[in-house]
TrEMBL record, chains A, B:
GO terms for cellular component: cytosol. The lineage of its organism: Bacteria, Pseudomonadati, Pseudomonadota, Alphaproteobacteria, Maricaulales. One of its GO terms (biological process) is 'de novo' IMP biosynthetic process. Homodimer. The keyword Ligase applies. It catalyses: 5-amino-1-(5-phospho-beta-D-ribosyl)imidazole + hydrogencarbonate + ATP = 5-carboxyamino-1-(5-phospho-D-ribosyl)imidazole + ADP + phosphate + 2 H(+). Keywords: ATP-binding, Ligase, Nucleotide-binding, Purine biosynthesis. It comes from the Bacteria. This is N5-carboxyaminoimidazole ribonucleotide synthase. ATP binds at residues 110, 151, 156-162, 186-189, 194, 217, 268-269. NCBIfam families: PRK06019.1-2, PRK06019.1-5, purK. It comes from Litorimonas taeanensis. Pfam families: ATP-grasp, PurK_C, RS_preATP-grasp-like. GO terms for molecular function: 5-(carboxyamino)imidazole ribonucleotide synthase activity; ATP binding; metal ion binding; phosphoribosylaminoimidazole carboxylase activity.
Length: 357, 357
C-alpha cells in the first residue's frame, strides 16, 4: 500500500486510459526518467499505448487484470473520470491512487459534483436539481424562472448528453432522448465568458496555479484557450483551491467557470485530471500540466507554474489536422499530434500552440 | 526508394541506436504524431526502446534484420556515427537515409573528416597527420614544433582513445596502448575556449542555426553548455554551414570548434546527429534540436531556431543523478533523465537546463 515516495526515477506510474491525455502524461513521465504503464480497453495503437513503457488491454471491470496492473506499478492515476468507482476503489486498495477514488466519485457524477462544490466547498455553481421526471424539469424551470440545461449525470463530454430546455416541447423531446438515464438540470447561465484555471496540489497540501485561461467553444467542443486571459479574474484560483482543499486533492485539476456580467464566477464543472484548456502550458516556458501532474502523483516538488510566454492553444478537430503542413510552416507555432489513425468528425486529433499577439 | 515526403503524421521514422539521443528523438517525433522504430543491439530496457513505437534488437551487421527494419520504415536516420558503412549503404538502398551514408562515412573517421573539412569544405582544422608508426608521430611533432594528441581514427568519444604526446616516452606509451588501431595525430591547440553550433539543413538546402554555445568539459566529458555563449563568434554558423553544404547534409549537425586567442576558429570535430551541446534547446522556447532533426528527416519545414531564453545545460554524470530530488526542487530548472538503470561512473544519466543568470 505504501510506495517509496517520492518515486525515484525508474519507478512506474500506472495510468488508466489511453487517449491523448495519457499520451502526453506518458511523454512527460519519460522526460523525468519515470516509466508508465497504460491500462485501457483499447488496442496498442491507441494514443497513449504507442508511447508508454508498458500497455495492458483490459476492461475497466476486469478485476483480475486490474489487480495485476496495479501490482506492476508504484503509483496510479487516470486520464479520464469515467472509470467505475469499484475499479478505482480496488486500485486504491493495492497502490496509491491520485487523485483519490473519492475525488473521482465526486467528479464523475454531475449531481454529486455540484452538491460537493456548493455544499462542502462553499463555492458557487449554477442552480441545479436532481431530475427524476419531466415534471421535475418543469418545476425547476418555474423555480429559476427561466431556461435550463438538462444533462446526463455521468459520461457526458464535449456537449454530449446535454439539451437546452426552453419550453414544454423541449422537455418532452429531452425526456424521449435522455429519460432512461440519471439526469440533472442546471439553470442556463447567460455568461459573459468561459474561463478556467489549472491548479496542482501535492500530497503535503502545497499548490501551484497557472494563470486564468479564456476558452472559446465551437459546437460544444473547446476551440481555443488563451493564456493568460486578456482580462484577469483573481477569484478563480482561490475558488479552485477551495474545492481542491475540500477534496484533499492530489494532482492537476481543471476548474471551468462561467463569468457573469458582474464579474462573479460560477463553477461549470471540474475535471479531476489534466485538461484540454491546459495544453498551452506545453509551450509557455514553465513546467507543463502533464509534468506537473506526474510530479504531484510521484510526490516530487511541484514545478514552476509561472509562464514566460503568452500562448493561444487551438484544437485540431477532425479534418483540421489535414492542415498540419501549413501549421508546421508557421514560425513559432508548436504542433502536438495524438497519433490517432482516423480523423473522424468532432474527434480531437491534435492541437497547436501559437504565441499570443 | 522514394517516400512520400513530407512524411505525413502516422509515418514511421527508423532510428539506428537506442541511447539517450534516440530516446529524445523518439519523444520529439511522438509530439509530431510520427512513429519511431529503433534498431540497436541493446535490449528493450535501453533508453530509446522504452519510448519508441517499435523496437528491434539486432546487430549492426545483420543484413537480414536491417533489411526487414528498413522496409518497415518510411525514412531512416541514426543517433550515433559508428554504424558500419556497409549497414548505412544497405539501409540507404532501401529507404531514404538522412544524413546520408556518405556524410556518415566522412564523419566516422577522424582522418577523412579532417581531410574533408579542410580540403573539400575549405574550413580550418588543427594540423593533422595520418599515423602508421611511432616515427610518424615524431616527424609530425617536429613539423608542428610542439605537442600533439594521438587519437584512434574511429569509435572515440568522451576522450576515449586519445593520448596527449609531449615526449618520446609518451610516443612509446601511446604506441603500446593504441598501436594496433588506425590512428591520427592532431596538433595540440592552446585554445581560449571550446564552442559549438547546432545547425539544421533541409532537403532543399534550407538551413536554421541556433546561437553559439560555450562548452566546458570535465575529465574529457561535456560538463556544461551555455547558450547563447557569453561572447559571440559570428563565424561559427557560417563555417558550419560551409561544411554542411559541402556534405549536402540533411538533418541536425553539431560542429565543435576551438577558439584561438585571436578569435579565429578551428573545427575540432563534427557530429552528424543531434548533440549533447544542443540539449539546452529543449527549454529555450524554440523548436528543440530533436524535433528539428525529425523535421529535417521528414522533410517538414524547419522550426524556429531563435531561442527566447538563455539556458545553461549541465550534464548529470554517474552519481550526479542521485541528486534528482534537489534539482526537482529548484524553481525553473528542467530535468531530463534517460531511463538508464545503472549510474556507472562517467555514464551520462541525464541533464538539467537552468535559466542563464
Amino acid at each position: 500500500m505504501t510506495a517509496p515516495f517520492p518515486l525515484a526515477p525508474g519507478s512506474t506510474i500506472g495510468i488508466f486510459g489511453s487517449g491523448q491525455l495519457g499520451r502526453m502524461l506518458a511523454l512527460a513521465a519519460a522526460r523525468l526518467g519515470l516509466n508508465t504503464h497504460i491500462y485501457a480497453p483499447t488496442g496498442p495503437d491507441s494514443p497513449a499505448a504507442q508511447v508508454a513503457t508498458e500497455f495492458t488491454t483490459g476492461d475497466y471491470t476486469d478485476e483480475a487484470a486490474i489487480t495485476r496492473f496495479a501490482k506492476s506499478c508504484d503509483a496510479l492515476t487516470y486520464e479520464f473520470e469515467n472509470i467505475p468507482a469499484q475499479t478505482a476503489a480496488l486500485a486504491q486498495s493495492l497502490k496509491p491512487l491520485s487523485p483519490s477514488a473519492s475525488c473521482l466519485d465526486v467528479a464523475q457524477d454531475r449531481l454529486s459534483e455540484k452538491r460537493f462544490i456548493s455544499e462542502k466547498a462553499g463555492v458557487a455553481v449554477a442552480p441545479f436539481e436532481d431530475i427524476k421526471s419531466p415534471d421535475d424539469i418543469k418545476r425547476f424551470m418555474q423555480s429559476i424562472n427561466g431556461a435550463c440545461v438538462v444533462k446526463t449525470r455521468r459520461f457526458g463530454y464535449d456537449g454530449k448528453g446535454q439539451i437546452i430546455i426552453k419550453s414544454q416541447e423541449d422537455i418532452d423531446a429531452a425526456w424521449a432522448q435522455l429519460g432512461d438515464k440519471a439526469l440533472i438540470a442546471e439553470a442556463f447561465i447567460p455568461f459573459e465568458r468561459e474561463v478556467s484555471v489549472i491548479c496542482a496540489r501535492g500530497k503535503a497540501g502545497q499548490s501551484a496555479c497557472y494563470p486564468l485561461i479564456e476558452n472559446v467553444h465551437r459546437h460544444h467542443i473547446l476551440h481555443t484557450s488563451t493564456s493568460p486571459a486578456p482580462r484577469d479574474n483573481p477569484d478563480a484560483q482561490k475558488l479552485a483551491l477551495k474545492i481542491m482543499n475540500a477534496l484533499d486533492y492530489v494532482g492537476v485539476m481543471a476548474t471551468e467557470f462561467f463569468e457573469l456580467p458582474n464579474g462573479s464566477l460560477m463553477v461549470n464543472e471540474i475535471a479531476p485530471r489534466v485538461h484540454n484548456s491546459g495544453h498551452w502550458t506545453q509551450d509557455a516556458g514553465c513546467t507543463d500540466q502533464f509534468e506537473q501532474h506526474i510530479r504531484a502523483v510521484a510526490d516530487w516538488p511541484l514545478g514552476d507554474a509561472t509562464p514566460k510566454h503568452s500562448v493561444v492553444m487551438t484544437n485540431l478537430i477532425g479534418d483540421d489536422v489535414n492542415n498540419w503542413a501549413d501549421f508546421a510552416a508557421e514560425p513559432g507555432t508548436a504542433i502536438h499530434l495524438y497519433g490517432k489513425q482516423e480523423a473522424r468528425q468532432g474527434r480531437k486529433m491534435g492541437h497547436i500552440n501559437r504565441p499570443q499577439k
